[in-house]
Amino acid sequence: MAEPILEVRGVAKSYKQGQIETQVLRGVDFAAYPGELIAVLGPSGSGKSTLLNIMALLDEPTSGDVMVGGRRANSLESGERAHLRNHKLGFVFQFDSLLPEFTVLENVSMPGRILGAPDLDARALKQLERLNIARLAERFPQQLSGGERQRVAIARALFNSPSALLADEPTGNLDRSNGELVFSSLREQAESSSVAIVLVTHNEEAARFASRTVHILDGKLSETSLQGKA
C-alpha cells in the first residue's frame, strides 16, 4: 500500500482565554493517500477548519504530530515549515483570491513566479487545459463566473505540482450547478495527478464526489465511509 502523503497522529488542539480552556480537536488520527479526494464533513464549530489549518502547517497542534511526505512537520522551524508548505501543499479557499489586475494565465502561474520557476506560461496553460478552461487564459477574473473562478483557483493551487491539495469550503459561494463542477474538477485532478485532496465542507453534496468521507463532530472523527463515484 502507498505511504500517506499527509497524516495527523493523535492531534489535539485547545485554546485558552483566561481560566477557560476550549478543546477544539480531541486526539484526531487521519491519513490522506495519493489519488484520494477526501471530504471532511461537519457543521460550523465542529473543528474541521482547525484541522485543515493544522494539516496546512498554518497552525500548530497542542499535542500530536503532523506528517507531510513522511516528515514530522510540526517540529520544524518556521522557515522550514514555510518551505515544506510552499513545495508540498496547494490551497483552495471559499474566496478564490484571484488578483484582478492579472489575467487568468498570469494568476495561475503566480506560485511559480514567487519561486522563480521556468516556463511559466506553458505550464499555466497546461494546467488550464487539464481543467478544460484554457479558453479563459487571456480573460481577467471579473470576466468569469463563480465556478470558472474557482476552477482557475484549483489550477493555481496545482501549479507547483503539490503532493496534497487542501480545500476549505471551495463551493461556499457557489450555486449547486457550479458547486458540482468544482467538486467534479477536484475529483478528476486527484485521479489524474495522484495528488491527495482534502476538502472540508458542510456541503453534503461533496460526499457524492469523494473517494472517502470523514465526519467530524465536537473535535473527533466520528465516521469514515467509502463512497461511490458521482
CATH class: Alpha Beta
Which class best fits the helix and strand makeup? alpha/beta
Helix content: 25-40%
Identify low-pLDDT runs: none
Backbone CA Rg = 17 Å
Shape: globular
Largest sheet: 6 strands, mixed
Task: Outline the secondary-structure elements.
Elements: E1 6-17, E2 20-32, E3 37-41, H1 48-55, E4 63-68, E5 71-72, H2 78-88, E6 89-93, H3 104-115, H4 120-130, H5 146-157, E7 164-168, H6 176-193, E8 196-201, E9 212-217, E10 220-226
Parallel strand pairs: 3-8, 3-9, 6-7, 7-8
Antiparallel strand pairs: 1-2, 1-4, 4-5, 9-10
Helix pairs in contact: 3-4, 3-5, 5-6
What does this structure look like?
The chain has 230 residues and is an alpha/beta fold. The chain has a single domain, classed as Rossmann fold, CATH 3.40.50. The chain has six helices and ten strands, in the order βββαββαβαααβαβββ. The protein is globular, with a radius of gyration of 17 Å. The mean pLDDT is 89.
In short:
The protein contains 6 helices and 10 strands, in the order βββαββαβαααβαβββ. With 230 residues, the protein is of the alpha/beta class.
Please describe the structure with a list of short key phrases separated by commas or semicolons.
230 residues; alpha/beta; Rossmann fold; six-stranded mixed β-sheet; four-stranded antiparallel β-sheet
